[in-house]
Amino acid sequence: MTTIRQRRGGKVTEAAEHQPSEEKNVKSDGKVLSDHTGGKLRNILSLTLGGIVAIGLGLLTSVYVATLHENDLWFSNIKEVEREISFRTECGLYYSYYKQMIQAASIQQGLHALVYDNKTESVRTINILERMNVYQEVFLSILYRILPIQQYLEPVYFYIYTLFGLQAVYVIALYVTSWLLSGTWLSGLLAACWYITNRIDTTRVEFTIPLRENWALPFFAVQIAAITYLLRTHLQPAQERLTLLAVFIATFLFSLTWQFNQFMMLIQALALFIPDCFDMLPTAKVTWLYIIQISGLLLVCVLQFFNSMILGSLLISFNASVLIARAIQKNLKKGNLLNRLGKLILHVLLVLSLTLLVNKFIKKSLNLESDEHIFKFLKAKFGFGATRDFDANLYLCEEAFGLLPLNTFSRLSDTLLFYIYIFSLFPMTAAALIVAFRNLSGSNQVQEKAEEYTIILKPDAAYNLIHTVLFGCLALSTMRMKYLWTSHMCVFASFGLCSTEVWRLILKCVHLYTSQRTQVIKYSIPIITLLYISYKFWPGIMDELSELREFYDPDTVELMNWIKSNTPNTAVFAGSMQLLAGVKLCTGRTLTNHPHYEDKHLRERTKQIYQIYAKRSPEDVYRILRSFGTDYVILEDSICYERRHSRGCRLRDLLDIANGHVQ
């Protein structure tokens, strides 16, 4: 068992009578020119200073998480095998392909070995580039091979520094999104500070470095920033085209680096669909975003050798259904309130029905079953009947797939983030409801009364509002997905605290509004909040950075060394998914199963291998193991005598339920 222990060691006058008047005009024109020049100069200075602060905070975040990683593991001092063991479960599996590409005789041979891989799953040849999202490892390994850095930087450091560098991109993207929404870079500064001080709930990059979300979320944040800019009014055509290109590139990179991309983008598509139904977003831009999502995903599908899970994704079915439904219902946004409501309900039903029909047709035509375990899990999780399915129960029993723990809100409240988030969410949600009613009614009287709320809820703010609500619901239901919400929570809370429009609405509601008072509050409260955060959390951060620990897992080190020394290179190993990923990385031996679970045949294979922990006869177990070419079995006492899960959720209990040994 791994432990972290304390480290040891801008005319001339012609008539006199006109002179005073002309002097006055000259002075007036000069003042206008001076004001214009001064305002432009202030904008340039603000943009420059804000940009410098953004880059500085991004780099500081990278250094911060890199230092934490070094201090926790003493990574620079431990052996190579210990470094590799520190990449736990699926992290080790992904990193193994980077290592494999580095060690290949040539790039071509490395790529060939990935396309025709027979060591990840015994007695079976699979295409790693089709099955897994490892193009980032391929790209990074090629980059390492062609750059003249081999004698200065070890491959593992090139890898982890790239991931820590992406954290800088992540923080800068959050900073820019908040700045775009509020109009002041002070908001971006606050968002970045919240991201850092709530690190436990905003990222886990320092201890799960190769995890797919650590590659994908920075690109997702860049995409959200680009969409926020795209939804602003009065953009020039050239600006709009460039922004659409940025959205496409970010969408593509996000989709390429994470197997769960389609589910996250489906929620994002809903965040576009809902406000668009209520005329809060420009329809033409939303249409482009739907098309970009589809095209980005299809491009990834091509690169992944037409991965069936992508072709059968709900995102493609949903976006296609929205575009088809729009073509059918051309007068969707015309008529009185009741007429609009009826059309809207019909539109939603049409979209949902088409989505299910299109998706079912695609899956039936292509015989797709890659993601069926996810829907079984969701069905059981939300109470649509108990299940004996092993895969669904395996997810249900994992804490990461359970409800978001209440202590999360306690930690977020310590930095004032959660309180200010709710404070920002309430007026924005009220404004959204009023604007939705105003847009549906079409009444001039209602339009005039709701004008103030329309000023507050601009298209970019409307999108981010629905985005944070939907991803909040996702995080509340599944703890592992909280990182998609908490980072955007930092953006939304800082936007609400620094927004002129939000403060104007609040002050008008309590009859205290003046322009000067609004400006004072807009800047003073965020500054006070920043001072509070600095005062309360700076000492803790310094203490955290000064605490030195050391990686310590002698049992696993001994196991890996024994395997390398005492077994042939062609040996096949069976065991738990988590440990076998480490076996592949550290020893290069062939596996029977592994943690990348998005394949039906692998799930069935894993269930069969796990029969070593079930109530099965030795003969049955031997026959199963030999059918997969197994030479060695690794039994873990942490599974045999499992205490991490309660009774009914232990691995042997799940197997007994699935096998029918327990009713």
TrEMBL record:
The portions of this protein that span the membrane are: 44-66, 156-174, 179-197, 217-235, 242-260, 290-323, 344-362, 416-440, 485-507, 519-538
Subcellular location(s): the record lists: Membrane
Q: What membrane topology does the UniProt entry give?
A: Multi-pass membrane protein
Q: Which UniProt keywords apply?
A: Glycosyltransferase, Membrane, Transferase, Transmembrane, Transmembrane helix
Region of interest: Disordered: 1-34
Stretches of Basic and acidic residues bias are at 14-34
Q: Describe the family membership recorded for this protein in Swiss-Prot or TrEMBL.
A: Belongs to the dpy-19 family.
Protein name from the UniProt record: Dpy-19 like C-mannosyltransferase 3
